[in-house]
Specification:
- The structure is a single chain.
- This protein is an alpha/beta fold.
- 43% of the residues lie in helices and 21% in strands.
- Helix 1 links the parallel strand 1 and strand 2.
- Helix 1 runs parallel beside helix 8.
- The longest helix has 23 residues.
- It is globular.
- The two termini are 14 Å apart.
């Protein structure tokens, strides 16, 4: 049975809402098992992330989806501590050919989310993973609002500064999460059944 794991850090709950939406989409594929894994500050000691149970779940996964808020132009330090702990996975080639995707949230429409998404992409490439991005072109030829296009070019990005995402989910954020999980679902089905 294919397994999709969503691993994320959330500082205020906004990223948790997006993580839950992405996990829900992956779980909607018949026969797919999912793990929703929150990065805990308790697993970071002297700047180093360590949690063998989490790594065992990720090792057993066919797809790993990364999530973090964008803080100061990049992923949160807690996510970065997790990412730095994947060095042994890189060395062993343990995650080679697993599917990878990512999502982020920040308080503003731009908020430098692209830097965080590029960080996730680079991490996936370092680990030999296969990145799932959005297939749209940068032109607005499908009636996509420019704001939404900004939010989802290389992965999924939400805006949570006004509390919408954490409280009830902003309309744009919900649409982006649906599109992200639809894209991820399609790739899971292709790998699983293709």
């Amino acid at each position: 049975m294919p397994t999709v794991s969503v691993i994320y850090f959330s500082g205020s709950g906004h990223t948790t809402k997006l993580a839950e939406a992405v996990q829900k989409g992956a779980a909607s594929v018949a026969g797919v098992q999912t793990n929703l894994i929150a990065i805990s500050g308790d697993d970071i000691v002297k700047g180093r992330y360590a949690n063998d149970e989490v790594f065992a779940k990720l090792d057993a996964s066919d797809a790993i989806i990364f999530g973090s808020p964008t803080f100061m132009g990049g992923p949160a330090a807690q996510f970065k501590a997790f990412a730095d702990a994947t060095g042994p996975k890189w060395y062993a080639g343990a995650w080679r050919d697993k599917l990878a995707a990512g999502f982020t949230v920040s308080s503003g429409p731009s908020g430098d989310k692209l830097s965080t998404l590029h960080y996730f992409f680079t991490l996936a490439m370092q680990l030999g993973m296969i990145w799932i991005g959005f297939p749209e072109t940068p032109m607005n030829d499908k009636g996509i609002k420019p704001f939404e296009q900004l939010q989802r070019r290389d992965g999924a990005g939400g805006t949570g500064g006004d509390g919408r995402c954490a409280q009830r989910g902003g309309q744009t954020d919900r649409r982006i999460a649906r599109q992200a999980r639809g894209r991820i679902r399609g790739q899971i089905e292709e790998v699983k059944f293709g």
